[in-house]
What does this fold into?
Amino acid sequence: MTRVVLALLIALLSFSAHSQVSQDSLAQAFSKANGSATERIQYVEFVLANQRQANSTQLFFAARNAIESGRIEDAGFLFYAAQLRAKLDFFRYPSANA
It folds into this structure.
């Protein structure tokens, strides 16, 4: 039941009007994912604000940074969002060899 609710939440967030951020901005932010404690918290905030454009790896790193900084609810959300994004991308972009 929880996974269904999270899946619906992700779907709703995907279609809501969020600010568009470039992949370059996400990549630049990702470069600070392993930085100082302050940079890691800023990374979590950035990914939460731009979760629509973040890929599963960026979401997983943000989840890790959130759990390390004691932000349990954000960590849980980001972790499940990363898993769902990875599964959706797997089905959306199947292997050319399959």
